[in-house]
User: Fold these one by one.
Assistant:
Number 1:
Amino acid sequence: RGDENGYVDIDWDTLGFGLTSTDYMYKMKCFKDEEFAEGKLIPYGNIELSPAACVLNYGQGIFEGMKATRRENGKIVFFRPDGNALRMKKGAERMCMPSPSVDQFIDAVKQTALANKRWIPPPGKGSLYIRPLLLGTGATPSVAPATEYTFLIYASPVRNNYFKEERAALNLYVEDQFDRASRGGVGGLKSITNYAPGMKPLTKAKNNGYSDVLYLDSVTGKYVEEVSACNIFIVKDKIISTPPTKGTILPGVTRKSMIEIARDQGFKVEERQIAVEELLEADEAFCTGTAVAVVPVGSITYQGKRVEYRAADTNSMFKKLLSIYVGIQNGQIEDKKGWIVEI
Ligand code: COI
């Protein structure tokens, strides 16, 4: 189905990052202490849940974010889907949930992308954002792992940019009142419980004209951690630094890829604690994530001090790394690492 080119009839130039519902979603269930066995595509729509579902009452749920992209040659590709599959497995273990195997996960996201193919934007116009969810759907009035689990995947076409700034640089506000993650908690996995507590600081920052919030560590309040929905890098004297993923920081697939790309180019990358004062001295800063892709930071404000960066000039480290990342994604640069998975 679709028009003569196989596309749904929508205006691809006005895509946002909101939900556009598509044709199919994928669903697979299993009981506690069992393994996921077989799932299927079903028409996209609401799901029915017990009011006592563990996910609704106690937040037993994790999610992933991935993109299926259409290349100029018509091929549909994913970027490192095994990274998402493994992260879901690890997150499930922490949240006392069974998880699909890596192969089941990849097969399911491929099926979801193909079933919704007419919604995958034309090359350059965006991608099909794919959202796998793993939910404790069994009823549990007491605090205990659910007796039944649902792996659900839905998809929505989105533009390339998550932020409304489009290609402009982000203005970040360093939040020193609210924390995102605590030691021993679940900041290092995509638990659904990590996101709602960030809505208040995010709303405050947006109301004050900032693009997003940059969080500090919750133990000392001295070190940079991450932004609401993405990781952060700084560059000083051509050395790239990013906070280490030691439990409170989401181990982003794009983060990991940028580190590898930079090292392959001969640049030094340090995964280390970054004191908040270092932000004031940095030459550049940029953010990475599946939804946000790779975006430059234009300014960071910390306790009333605002520092501006030469974010996106042609000689910036950001631009160099971005062009390689984009080249590998769109096929103009050879994928020597097996990152691209064609459907
Ligand atoms: C992604 O980058 O795909 C994410 O899952 C972040 C999300 C909170 C927008």
Number 2:
Amino acid sequence: TLPRHVRLVEVGPRDGLQNEKRPLGLADKVRLVDDLSAAGLEYIEAGSFVSPKWVPQMADSAEVFAGIRRKPGVVYAALTPNLKGFEAALEAGVEEVAVFAAASESFSQKNIDCSIAESLARFVPVLDAARAHGVRVRGYVSCVLGCPYEGEVAPRQVADVARELFAMGCHEISLGDTIGTGTAGKARALFEVVARYIPRERLAGHFHDTYGQALANVYASLLEGIAVFDAAVAGLGGCPYARGASGNLASEDLLYLLNGLGIHTGIDLDRLIAAGERICAVLGRDNGSRVARARRGA
Ligand code: HMG
Ligand code: MG
């Protein structure tokens, strides 16, 4: 049976914008986040406290957090790769943070400049500081269904990293198909393996749509009892350290699927589409949501 409720984690302002070549102004970033909360999204990853040398697009995250209109009941989160990032996030008033590890060694090196083991050791003080400040921490695992440098990744490798993140106190573990090569059978099998160690309600799916498989992967994951999915409005996004990783699953397309299944989310599709259309116009980019494009013709 399918879950009755699904939570959408909107990652467009972070995963989406971190990969845009054209720099986006602060006011447009703030407007995007406010449009998304107005559409009914209750969890928005609004920025990233990483090195500006690595990801210049996220250098103004503190200003974004200062500029948004915080809607009660909405969680505004940010990525924090280390204690320095966590402290900056705390200062900016971030309510929830996320640490990010990888299931493949090569990707870990390229993305965060350290081994998987080193990254996990680096997260421990972040989790400790977060606990002391009452801040919840989400954990990401990248390359769960394939690595741009190593190819196939075994579910066992993913489960090992996910378990460590969960054991150190991450309340939710998001499994990222960073390059979008995963297919439905593999996605379902992966969650089946990881759920042997971590309760299903603590797991999330993060599917990039590079190969057009993201919605199918979501459906397969729903059948496996997963009820939290990450998506980006207008299908913005990708990862600067994974070639070909353009495009998260579009939030509009995910919402359309969930609406069709009668699964409640509380999000207004029309307002979400409008938010996506607006940011695409500002960026001068095609809308990656099929639903948004279809509605345009209607
Ligand atoms: P490093 O070079 O090993 O770090 O990078 P370091 O500690 O040696 O510091 C080097 C410089 O960075 C120093 O500055 C630090 O102060 C500064 P300098 O002395 O040279 O002027 N620095 C920082 N500045 C601001 N905020 C910080 C910070 N930390 C150090 N937090 C580091 C290591 C992790 C910092 C770097 O590799 C980095 O920032 N990587 C971020 C990469 C990234 O953001 N990737 C995209 C997000 S992950 C993703 O998209 C995948 C996901 O969507 C899931 C999926 O799809 O799979 C989540
Ligand atoms: Mg991603």
Number 3:
Amino acid sequence: MTDQISSVSAPTTMDKVIDRLRARSLQTGGARQMYEKTIAGLDGPRVRFTDGTNPLMLATYDYLGLLDDERINQAVKDAVDTFGTGGHGSRVWGATLTLHRRLEQEIAEWVGTEAALVFASGFVTNFSVIASLAGPGDWLLSDQRNHASIVDGCAAAKSAGAVVKVYRHNDAAHLEELLTQAPPDAARVVVTDGVFSMDGNLVDLPGIAETCRRRGALLFLDEAHSLGVIGPHGGGTPDHYGLPNAADLVMGTLSKSIPASGGFVAGRHDLIEALRFTTRAYVYTGAPSPPNTAAALAAIRLVRQEGDQRRARLRRNLDRLLHRVRQEGLRTTDTGSAIVPVILGENAVAIEVSRLCQEQGLFVLAAVPPLVPAGTARLRLNVTAAQSLDDIDRTVDIIAAAVRRVGAGSLVAT
Ligand code: PMP
């Protein structure tokens, strides 16, 4: 009898697991459905959701406006005709296609390195390559605001015996101080985002790269939001700063300005080949699919051919957006990237503003903890080359009206 009662009331392992997961989830204040809309189709810079709405998309990583480009779509169809939709298994088990080889070669040419290695996703690239790079006793130093995939890669390296240190955001002096504490014979690897994804700001590459050089550390640079997008030639943060060889390993994703999915690292041939047969997410997983690989390859070719015009349009849109947002008295910064944060403060305010914008045909989302620190909830706008100036003006009009309606007078910069 007693047993029966306790088995009914005591939380089961399933209850405990679900409770713990809920405690860590996005603090969306009950507005989770807003974050989980389902896209039924595309319409230029707009999306068609299954709920019948057709908003302008300001929460997209399609920075260069290449998503749904008919030349990329055609390359995918051709690849499916030649190779089918899937593969034969792992790249190291006979499944490498000509497409994979070409993609790796053209990524290396694009980034300006000797070689490149492609993975199934950007997250997995960071996670697995970072875990491979630092072994027992090696020192791994990571910026405080690095992406979750880097944080998890560092945790994996730590559990394998690496020493992990987190340096203050973009603080080269703190990095230097930590590097001086490493034993002289320890290998040192420094990992940083090129563009920090929630604030949109750039790495202090001159400071961080110089510190690495002086202290003999290898620099791993995550260019997920910057390759193709920033720098006079679209070469990312090294191009922006005029430091083409600042990083030893450049990581990039194939899911943002390149509208496919996957990730890569690019660097010296001997390092890349050493990673190829050791990185677990390369060895123990199926090769990227033919359609996906073909999409990435076709997109990289287009970025190399048409990048200048697309970046010029993107810059024009960014300038207009920043100008108009400031004119409305909202708090933002010119981050140097295509990510524009509009800081609103409280989660509930940011979520309500986002909801009102969506009602008016503008899809923007509020970034809330744990994505951003508490008290800094924000709208996170992504500008792209596909948007028109009218789209940008409408975006700001809708946001400004929503902020006024929520009555967030204190949100406005003084
Ligand atoms: N690095 C950074 C800085 C990112 O912002 C992201 C994803 N937003 C990734 C890596 C992971 O890339 P992917 O989405 O291709 O897995």
Number 4:
Amino acid sequence: MDLRQGIGLRRLGTTADEFQQDLLSSLYYRRGTTVESASPRDAYEALVLTVRDRLADRRARTAAAHFASNPRWVYYLSAEYLLGAQLEQNLLYSGTGEVAAEAVKVLGRSLEEIEDLDVEPGLGNGGLGRLAACLVDSMATRDIPAVGYGIRYDFGIFRQSLEGGAQAERPDDWAFQGNPWEFPAPDDRQVVHFYGHTEPVAGSPIRKRWVPGEIVLGEPSHMLVPGYGTETVNIVRLWRARGSEASFDLSRFSAGQYAEAVQEAVRAENISKVLYPDDSTELGRELRLKQQYFLCSCSLRDIIRRFRIRNQNWDDFAEKTVIQLNDTHPTIAIPELMRLLVDEYELDWDKAWSITRRTFAYTCHTLLPEALETWPVHLFERLLPRHLEIIYLINMLFLREVEDRFPGDTDRIRRMSIIGEEGERRVRMAHLAVVGTEAVNGVAELHSKLLRETVLQDFADLWPAKFQNVTNGVSPRRFVKLANPRLSDLITEGIGDDGWLTDLDKLAGLERLAGDASFAERWRAVKRANKIDLAAGDPDALTDVMIKRFHEYKRQQLKLLHVITMYHRIRANPTGDWVPRVVLFAGKAAPAYHAAKSIIRLINAVGATIAADPVVAPYLKVVFAENYNVTLAERIIPAADLSEQISLAGKEASGTGNMKLALNGALTIGTLDGANIEIRARVGEDNFFLFGLDAFEAAEMRIRGYHPREFYDRDAELKTALDSIMSGAFGGVGHEVAESLLGWDEYLTLVDYRSYLESQDEVEAAWRDRDRWTRMSILNTAHSGFFSADRTVSDYAARIWRVAPVTVPRED
Ligand code: CR6
């Protein structure tokens, strides 16, 4: 399929010469500059455009193939995308890395220098956002027709720095110099309504007219999402909020009221300003809900627009469309689709509801009650009056269904209602998401089981078949091939080809090499070279990493108690045979999460004390790498020996950092939580350091009543560690951390402390036996193939989406 035929466009070349020609064209015609006067930014943008053109070519062929086959589409709705830096990835995916490296010489710069200018889009917070990016990558790789929808935040994530050891936040203006990867599509702009009131429609008991109080425009742009080893290029479409033309008040401007003249436009634009605005104020909560609705309204209208290009009949909508809700943030899409179908397209309620229910699927990503969203009814009433009416009707019909199944069980009805009546009346978004979808899944076996047995138990009783598990996965391209080229080459050599990049189970081919001394030697050499690149400390020391968001349930404080205990042990016995360790932390704490920020502060205080102690410093080093993001993860992961996955069992839904680290040959020390369980089952008990309570024991312990002081009194080393914090041994920092551990210890840190330390002793024993450690490391990689996001996507495709791939023909 040559789309250029008939319009006289030339085919893009594949040789270094041709690439160079195109690079120079980009520089002259699109940057408007010359080789002599090109700035580093010009060189960067010219290269991006040249690479982007090659993907745009494939994108055009993909769109044509999709149009021709009118397939069933997956639409992924997500508040976050952490796409990572694009240039290196797109060079790999377009197969132009080598020619580009050659071609850029004409600009007098190396590819590496240019790549340094490629900043990652800051459009997400943590695992959920990175998962979204891995899934869209794998959907394209598996030729699944898909669009990811999101918001183009100006400030999707803050930049973290340390000031006096404490986290400081600054805005991260990731697109300050523009984002050359993005294609604006102003013609697909959407109009979004807020506030106002509803009015009855004559002749219809159900339909309503919504008279809005505010109108905002959603302007889309898209980023290309190429598949690896295939022709498919999908897109992520991101919405940015703008005021309408009418939002600029010219008469006020003329009267010198400059701020007032633009206030409405500013208010509109605030919708896509930041991700998860602080919701501790009423205004903040309203802005969050506004954002969620903005994403859903724009995306649904776009989805319907796309549907109607090739289809006329609403009966086909649910056949042609599946909309995956990434957590509850886009749940408002359910009543929005009802509103569009009933009020705007005039379908009757039952038909609309049948379509809606069959269209959506919901992935839950948490078990923490505080993370399950609820919105005050009064907020809905003011911001989205029509949606509240629709939710009430959905709820009424749903509760009737419950009553039919469980007659007289009023307690159950109260528990299951979409409207929570305890205290302030609130809309329970997770309930709405379960009621309005065809499938609900958790993100790891344990998580899905706990969802069915605890948080969503009533729903699982009612609709057992609705509940599924799809274990998360990660992109082997980004997190092995791009992040760890040395290991990738060694793997390819060991297995014989690079087919593992799209069929990660092939890593099992490494198993037979686990006992091969010369292979093991090279495996170690790769790790060592990666550690030298990272430059966090002695490359021969055990590199022990804990990289993830800061949250008390993840228990960075437990890792810290281990560090403090090691510090005391070494001081007490300076001539002991200690295993040298570099303990590396990286991660951000939510700006308003004070307890997490105190832990960061204490880590740095302990690190400084150790660094200044000549007895301990040769054996123990604490490093805090600032501003953790995808790019930094790609540097740390290849250098890790030990992966800390030490959340309290039952709290981490899945984790995906655990998978990335295991794939790169780090050994895991972890609890029976989230995907750790599945990692351990695959890599083998002998190759995993297990400790701590399981989820059942942890829940029991909480119920029985837990007194952290008892653990403190019983364990001399634990006592010493906590006492040293309390007595100010670490620059007087950390009182509140110790106090919360001794007072309440929400996440049972002190309970698991002893077991964790014992497990760390086993880590050291294994580390001392170099050959054993290397063998374990190789086996971790060999048996982690299951954790490819390609497998995750295949699971979704087969069990939830029921979509078939569409092959995009190669250019011939
Ligand atoms: N914080 C889970 O906590 C999981 C990811 C992706 C999380 C984490 O265990 O791996 O989602 N949950 O499924 C939410 O964001 C609500 C996360 O990233």
